[in-house]
Design brief:
The structure is a single chain. With 196 residues, the chain is α/β, with parallel strands linked by helices. The chain has one domain (4-191): Rossmann fold (3-Layer(aba) Sandwich). It is 38% helix and 17% strand. The chain has six helices and seven strands, in the order αβαβαβαβαβββα. It has helices spanning 4-11, 23-35, 67-78, 93-100, 113-126, 173-191, and strands at 15-19, 39-43, 83-87, 105-108, 131-135, 148-152, 155-159. It has a seven-stranded mixed sheet, sandwiched between helices. Strand 6 (148-152) and strand 7 form a beta hairpin. The longest helix is centred in the C-terminal third of the chain and has 19 residues, at 173-191. The chain is globular, with a radius of gyration of 16 Å. The two termini are 16 Å apart.
Length: 196
């Protein structure tokens, strides 16, 4: 076991890329900021909208701001020592390779299945040595015991693996928070492993 000082020292030089700064990405980034990750690479193309406040780690006075910039501000309010790198882009195969090349771990935080698939295929093809932490199934409420983590070598998936978001089963803050914190916890598992 490590003291908090040892944990922060070990995380100080680690770089985590987060693909998407919505519900999963913003909450995961804040959890990592609180434990002292050294460097976060934040990506998203959207601006903060009022409806985002229901599940995303933003505030009323940030409505209309670029998500990556607002999230960087929030991270630095928690831990001013964290380096943040922001990319206001729609990720594609080329930008994923360029942006996440130097990251120790990559966290997927997308809502669209097609985008998730593009990210995983790009990472597996170009960075087979990197850990990729994904989500699958976080919509609705309740059923805490159905949320779990599955590992497939360097691919880790957090969620219940079945409850995709739809109009009658929207993603709500408690389950989004659980899964995003599981993703952050998986990052710590990887980065604090003595063999990493």
């Amino acid at each position: 076991m490590f003291s908090i000082e040892t944990i922060r020292r070990r995380l100080h030089d680690k770089k985590v890329g987060i693909a998407g700064s919505g519900g999963l990405g913003s909450n995961c980034a804040m959890a990592l900021a609180r434990v002292g990750i050294g460097h976060l690479v934040l990506t998203d193309l959207d601006i903060v909208e009022e409806s985002d406040l229901a599940v995303q780690y933003y505030f009323q006075d940030q409505i209309g701001q670029k998500k990556v910039l607002a999230l960087s501000d929030n991270v630095k309010k928690v831990n001013p020592q964290i380096k943040t790198e922001t990319h206001d882009v729609k990720l594609d195969e080329n930008s994923i390779v360029t942006i996440f090349r130097n990251c120790d771990v990559i966290v997927e935080a997308f809502s669209l299945v097609e985008t998730k698939q593009m990210l995983v295929e790009t990472v597996l093809l170009n960075f087979p040595e990197k850990y990729l932490i994904m989500s699958s199934g976080l919509a609705g409420w309740g059923d805490n015991n159905k949320i779990s983590q599955a590992s497939y070598e360097k691919l880790i998936i957090c969620g219940d693996f079945m409850s995709g978001a739809k109009e009658t089963l929207p993603p709500l803050a408690p389950r989004v928070g659980i899964v995003s914190n599981m993703q952050a916890n998986a990052v710590l598992e990887i980065l604090l492993n003595k063999n990493f």
